[in-house]
Write a structure and sequence with these properties.
Helices cover about 80% and strands about 0% of the residues. The chain is mainly alpha-helical. Strands 1-2 form a two-stranded antiparallel ribbon. Strand 1 and strand 2 form a beta hairpin.
């Protein structure tokens, strides 16, 4: 029981960083009446993602690990686009880059054999639920792939409309997964997120409507 409490504490700590980034981003956006992406958003994302990746590791939940692994490196790329990544010591940067990879290698290593099956297998998760979890995490993580591609095209880090729309869809899928998985960390974190995602969509639509009005 104590182990489960510690595990959930780790998960909620990760979500604290995720929630903090969203609240800070929301604060900046409310103040400017448009979607703002401050550097601290990506820093908190990296910290939260690493902690939640470790949470997925101890939960034997490949779906969580996969989603966080992809997102983690996109967060780093956004710091590079904001030209903030090189502000940190090169040793720290290398450690940050290598940590998830080393954890994956350790997780897959089973009895001195590199066993990829150990990444996908958890007797407590039915196969259909594992697939739902993977689809949910891929959908939710795809928002950052979309954001990354959009940022690469515009040569600046930003959060476009599609990012928030995909966020809502992914959050709904993850909430569904969390109910069957009986995971309170996933459930409560994404319930709160949907409200802020919707608010950012409102900001973007208002900005578009203002631009259309000025053009007319």
């Amino acid at each position: 029981m104590n182990d489960l409490i510690y595990l959930y504490s780790l998960g909620f700590l990760a979500q604290f960083f995720f929630s903090s980034r969203v609240i800070i981003q929301w604060f900046y956006s409310e103040r400017e009446a448009k979607v703002i992406t401050p550097t601290i958003y990506w820093i908190l994302s990296i910290i939260g993602s690493l902690l939640f990746f470790v949470y997925g590791y101890f939960r034997d939940d490949f779906a969580i690990m996969l989603g966080q692994f992809i997102g983690y490196y996109i967060y780093i790329r956004n710091l590079q686009l904001q030209k903030k990544w090189t502000d940190y010591n090169i040793v720290i940067r290398r450690i940050i880059i290598l940590l998830p990879i080393l954890i994956c290698i350790e997780r897959a290593w089973n009895s001195n054999f590199f066993d990829l099956e150990s990444l996908f297998y958890n007797p407590d998760i039915p196969q259909w639920l594992l697939y739902l979890g993977i689809i949910s995490q891929i959908t939710f993580t795809f928002r950052y792939i979309y954001q990354w591609m959009s940022s690469e095209i515009s040569k600046k880090s930003h959060l476009p409309l599609g990012f928030w729309a995909i966020s809502i869809l992914g959050a709904i899928l993850i909430i569904t997964y969390s109910i069957f998985r009986e995971d309170p960390v996933l459930f409560f974190s994404h319930i709160a997120g949907i409200i802020i995602y919707s608010r950012n969509i409102y900001f973007i639509y208002m900005r578009i409507n203002i631009l259309i009005y000025l053009m007319i």
